[in-house]
């Protein structure tokens, strides 16, 4: 057999091998897409639709990482005055989960003054004067509970339904289930201020979902995303040709391997290209009125950074971004509680109230769900880390406060309560799994049906727990 004949035989074999692999890969791809295992293109869901008519189209999660003190902001406890400076009997503290202090720590009553606000008469702290004016728009839950007493697992529990890092977070689940209405921006965007959350990127991870569903952090200065702009000498046409070449190479690689992350990579390249035109327009606030920017506190301190993020959140949901997470940290006031709490309230109170008012005035609040809160609360027992420190509060998972507003939420009401000394939720306890189930419900998704098969079993955001909190619903 001549060399030419051997090469022809090898070529035919290679051709048949390639055909067999290609047909097998196409079959695999068809099955994977049918089961929701392949990444969709930007703005496209994975073949899933709402399970029922949604009350909200978008979610803005105002994540106050580090755990704000509920009895100093939302849950007044005058009964603590009787015990101030004294330890509680062991019978009262036997079941408390404490991170750093001992059950013998002394009670710390709150010096804050609370006012009855709006027609609802909701009691809100003097540290939140702007939110006080929005009381009739919010649903305040005073009976939140979680299983975790430390920050990283607590944040993971709130965002992914599990204390274990590596599960998909709520924003990833929503874009997986619903996709995004924006073709030119990510479906899940993350904006940060303050010191940064201890959970880091695990708070907006896609986990084992395709990476297109991960939250995309936007930077505060320069390009919102690193390397979004072309380097000098590279034209848009040249970049388009480069992307087309990469796409062909990735498609060939996908045909050989069937790796779903290759599909995600292709989608991300395309989205980044489209964002080069859309992102600069998004972050250009010159078209916003002076009154709007002033209401968010953009041109003043200490509200500038967080106010900009809140205004950006409104602009993003206007442009079809499904989920916007604003992370502000840290509220972890183990010492110097009054000083630390006031600082964070001064930063966030005005922008948050402006966001609700702005969404409402533009007709967006009815279709935008706003959630405010941290991973747990703070103890009614005081903490001193060192002699001479001003007192603070330890971590408290047994009964804390969060609030919701907007799409499908019945505002102007308080759900649940804690006992007289704020030790535990007493009436209508709401676990973080219940909160997650309710958020998904408002977005048109049944938390028991929104699943993803991984490692041989079906996973969901709420694991095997959770129920929709009917009292929250309008």
Write a concise synopsis of the structure shown:
By secondary structure, this protein is α/β, with parallel strands linked by helices. The protein has helices at residues 3-34, 90-93, 129-132, 151-160, 170-178, 236-257, 260-283, 290-296, 304-318, 337-361, 432-442, and strands at residues 58-65, 114-117, 122-125, 138-145, 188-194, 216-218, 323-329, 368-373, 377-383, 392-396, 400-406, 413-415, 417-418, 425-427, 430-431, 452-454, 457-459.
C-alpha geometry:
globular
Distance between the termini: 82 Å
Order of secondary-structure elements: HEHEEHEHHEEHHHHEHEEEEEEEEHEE
Instruction: Give the % helix.
Output: 25-40%
Tally of contiguous helical segments: 11
**Residues in β-strands, percent:** 15-25%
- Average pLDDT works out at 86
The major beta sheet can be summarized as: 9 strands, mixed
Task: Please give the radius of gyration in angstroms.
Answer: 25 Å
Number of strands: 17
| Low-pLDDT stretches | 1-10, 13-47
Structural class: alpha/beta
Describe this entry's structure for a reader.
This protein has 474 residues and is of the alpha/beta class. The protein is 34% helix and 17% strand. Strands 1, 4, 5, 6, 7, 8, 11, 12 and 15 form a nine-stranded mixed beta sheet that branches. It has a two-stranded antiparallel sheet with strand order 2-3. The protein has a two-stranded antiparallel ribbon with strand order 9-10. Helix 1 (3-34) crosses helix 6 (236-257). The longest helix has 32 residues, at 3-34.
């Amino acid at each position: 057999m001549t060399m030419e004949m051997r090469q022809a035989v090898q070529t035919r074999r290679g051709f048949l091998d390639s055909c067999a692999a290609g047909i097998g890969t196409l079959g695999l791809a068809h099955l994977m897409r049918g089961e929701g295992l392949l990444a969709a293109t930007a703005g496209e869901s994975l073949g899933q639709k709402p399970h029922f008519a949604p009350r909200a189209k978008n979610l803005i999660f105002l994540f106050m990482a580090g755990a704000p003190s509920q009895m100093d902001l939302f849950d007044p406890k005058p009964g603590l005055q009787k015990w101030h400076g004294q330890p509680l009997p062991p019978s009262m503290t036997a079941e408390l989960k404490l991170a750093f202090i001992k059950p013998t720590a002394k009670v710390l009553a709150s010096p804050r003054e609370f006012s009855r606000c709006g027609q609802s008469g909701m009691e809100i702290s003097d540290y939140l004067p702007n939110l006080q004016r929005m009381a009739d728009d919010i649903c305040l839950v005073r009976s939140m509970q979680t299983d975790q007493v430390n920050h990283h697992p607590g944040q993971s529990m709130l965002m992914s339904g599990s204390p274990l890092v590596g599960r998909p977070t709520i924003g990833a689940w929503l874009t997986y289930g619903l996709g995004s209405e924006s073709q030119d921006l990510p479906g899940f965007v993350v904006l940060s201020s303050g010191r940064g959350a201890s959970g880091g990127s695990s708070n907006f991870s896609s986990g084992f979902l395709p990476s297109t569903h991960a939250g995309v952090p936007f930077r505060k200065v320069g390009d919102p995303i690193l390397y979004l702009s072309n380097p000098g000498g590279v034209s848009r046409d040249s970049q388009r040709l480069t992307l087309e070449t990469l796409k062909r190479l990735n498609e060939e690689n996908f045909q050989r391997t069937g790796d779903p992350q290759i599909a995600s990579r292709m989608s991300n390249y395309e989205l980044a290209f489209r964002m080069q035109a859309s992102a600069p327009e998004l972050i250009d606030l010159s078209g916003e009125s002076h009154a709007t920017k002033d209401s968010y506190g953009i041109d003043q301190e200490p509200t500038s950074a967080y106010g900009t993020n809140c205004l950006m959140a409104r602009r993003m949901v206007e442009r079809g971004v499904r989920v916007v997470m604003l992370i502000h940290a840290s509220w972890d006031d183990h010492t110097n509680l009054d000083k630390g709490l006031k600082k964070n309230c001064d930063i966030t109170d005005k922008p948050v109230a402006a966001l609700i008012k702005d969404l409402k005035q533009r007709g967006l609040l009815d279709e935008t769900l706003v959630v405010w809160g941290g991973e747990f609360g703070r103890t009614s027992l005081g903490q001193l880390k060192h002699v001479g420190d001003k007192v603070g509060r330890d971590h408290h998972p047994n009964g804390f406060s969060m609030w919701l507003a907007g799409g499908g939420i019945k505002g102007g009401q308080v759900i649940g309560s804690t006992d007289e000394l704020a030790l535990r939720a007493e009436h209508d306890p709401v676990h973080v799994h219940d909160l997650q189930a309710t958020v998904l419900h408002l977005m048109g998704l049944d938390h028991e049906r929104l699943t993803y098969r991984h490692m041989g079993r079906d996973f969901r955001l709420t694991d095997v727990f959770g129920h929709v909190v009917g009292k929250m619903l309008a």
